[in-house]
Amino acid sequence: MKEIGIGLLGFGTVGAGVVEALRKNGDLLAARTGVRLVLRKIADLDLDRDRGVALDRSLLTTDAISVIDDPAIQIVVELIGGTKIARTFITRALEHGKPVVTANKALLAECGAEIFRLAAKHGTAVGFEASVAGAIPIIKALREGLVGNRIARVYGILNGTCNYILTRMEREGDTFDHALKEAQAHGYAESDPTLDVDGWDTAHKAVVLASLAHGFPVDMAAVYVEGIRTLAKVDIDYARVLGYRVKLLGVVKAEPDGIDVRVHPTLIPANHMLSSVNGVFNAVMVDGDIAGQTVYFGRGAGRLPTASAVVSDLADLAVTMAAGAPFPPTLPHDLPGRCLNIGDISSRYYLRISLLDKPGVMGVLTTVLGNHGISIASVVQKETHAGRNVPVIIVTHRAREADMNVALAEIDARPFVGAKTIRLRIEDLDGQI
Amino acid sequence: MKEIGIGLLGFGTVGAGVVEALRKNGDLLAARTGVRLVLRKIADLDLDRDRGVALDRSLLTTDAISVIDDPAIQIVVELIGGTKIARTFITRALEHGKPVVTANKALLAECGAEIFRLAAKHGTAVGFEASVAGAIPIIKALREGLVGNRIARVYGILNGTCNYILTRMEREGDTFDHALKEAQAHGYAESDPTLDVDGWDTAHKAVVLASLAHGFPVDMAAVYVEGIRTLAKVDIDYARVLGYRVKLLGVVKAEPDGIDVRVHPTLIPANHMLSSVNGVFNAVMVDGDIAGQTVYFGRGAGRLPTASAVVSDLADLAVTMAAGAPFPPTLPHDLPGRCLNIGDISSRYYLRISLLDKPGVMGVLTTVLGNHGISIASVVQKETHAGRNVPVIIVTHRAREADMNVALAEIDARPFVGAKTIRLRIEDLDGQI
After folding, report:
1. What pTM does this model have?
2. pLDDT tens-digit readout, B166-175
3. Which structural domain range is residue A408 located in?
4. For B122, which DSSP code?
5. Considering only alpha carbons, which residue of chain A is nearest residue B20?
6. H/E stretch holding A156
7. Which of A132, B22, B293, B319 places its Cα 20 to 30 Å from the Cα of A146?
8. Are residues B352 and B206 in the same domain?
9. CA distance B63 to chain A (A)
């Protein structure tokens, strides 16, 4: 049986998972694919920490370059993360014509176009199934399973930390701060949670999915990103009353004038399948013009789930290499396309306006919104106390974001508005699902 | 750009969907894959019926053999269905070394091993994404996305007709007969619904998934099949009270002594994602030892959703052919494996016993079950009327099916049991999901 030599860069959580997966199921994998994956070298700066996997220590080295350059290593797996040294290593491997498998969404979001171009130039490939949604084979689904579809919409719950926090806020009534502490205590959040809770990790993944779905390199700078740090429990509760759940969504929508890519807490219908995705799980809904809506669900992170995705990429690459075949094109990065500016998107909105209750103020609100072409779908106002601030919840019909920005600026400048209006976006995800 | 010639056998609903999908997204597909799929011939006995797709009529022929033999046709798509003529055509194409794409689960379930062997012998391949779960790329997920996993369990809602009927019975309170009539009125069920409602279609698909997951040809004869025709609304209602929903599941479980493959109405926890799959939709849960649980959801049938799967197979095959590469092995059909007999499986059970209420009879029931190693997890008994039959619902702990059969025979022979006991199986699908 043919053997393909694997070199691993980064022996952290996922790296150890890959070692364990290959040890556990290497024989089965060989029987299934007809190729044997042989782990030949592992590079990491820390050679001493116990990763909980049985390992021949002679595989370990601190010298990543020697792994990349080793002629016995035919595929390089980059699990270091970050956008600096990982980029150098990936570039070097691709320049050697060696395919790379990576879980590095930050790097792909920031310079994926360059990396894919380099791979194409050197007749090699980049596998990145592990970069989005862990164990869920969403890259393969988009790239191959739905290859015959024009992708109208992708909605992803792509960050387990945020989904865990939102689930706690909804179910346990936690504040954001308390839910974050719980997430940290359970190992679901980093001590510096910025990348997760401020939406950047979700944005990186949304960019990878958007680029894949639409075939042009989506620029991170074009993506509107809003995290969950300032989300108030009260808005989750009001959303529930209105028949919605609040999820941090990566949104990728094809609109007539461009692709709408954004990340923000989003009200979605409580009876939609995505609303039942709780805790650290991830899910992605893809709406294709031929397939209709399909949903993919599973563990979005963790040692073994992410390793499952890495091994899938390794198997694909190894089968191609063992056959002496050229790699299929990684991404068609030359399709025409552009991203919409957040101001040019349209959405339905949830507004929580802090209103000093006086006769006629609702009429003023309606007029201001109407002046900007925004019509109201429903209003919720709890019992009022004359002369005190009361929250008024307004759900709007579809409106342009730029118009909403102007309307909210006007509203918030009124003397009868007691605090900055809270604005959340609604996605109706129409269809049965 | 390289072109690959496609010949279509069978111009029915899905065939017309494939024509429409290629017409609509052929350019996009070519941009994505670097290969152009060219539909060269369509064979059908009926050349006159309007399929609602624009078509050059010179593509049409009644002579399927001429399509298969045409040197300009490099991939044959079989969408005729059935196990007779379709088998002849597929065999002929494979003997020519031409890869085949098929949606024919009945044929694959009955003689898949022979077909895959023939493909391997002639160095060609069979694509069968469309054979299970329509638009959902579940074959690709199992075969490639989860290739590094030992598959512990697969649970599939694989028949939209049955799921529609069960959804109506649960939501609208329909009887089976009425729900079936509704399904027929909406075009979701055939006038002869046997293949669907008696579980055979689900069984065919379960066999395809089981063979794929475990790498040996699962024999249809080894699969226990029970449909939904005799399912009573009252059991759906009791299940609901107990926190379950009833779904017709294809079950594939790896047990220590073999693979447990069966199809029957199944109680699953109401809070599991599969319970929220309603109407004609399909979903598959796969539990892999590396990935954990992943769930795949979408439209399981219909013109375009099934076409999406066919086009995905076409694209994979075309990319390989255009590269002049050998096809990856379709299935490793030589892994060791055997199926369990239904008597040797173990399950938790829901029993509805029609009991003539007399003092002490519950004690007798408990004793009979206990004598066969079956212990009771919970009992529901509504207000009783002395001397009349009352339903007693018993939920058991895990027990062996053969033991349950003997126990039920004993119970049903007792004079205080007024009707044949209803027995349904429970799957707890443990995990958060």
Report:
1. 0.96
2. 999 999 999 9
3. 344-426
4. T
5. A290
6. strand A151-157
7. B293
8. no
9. 28
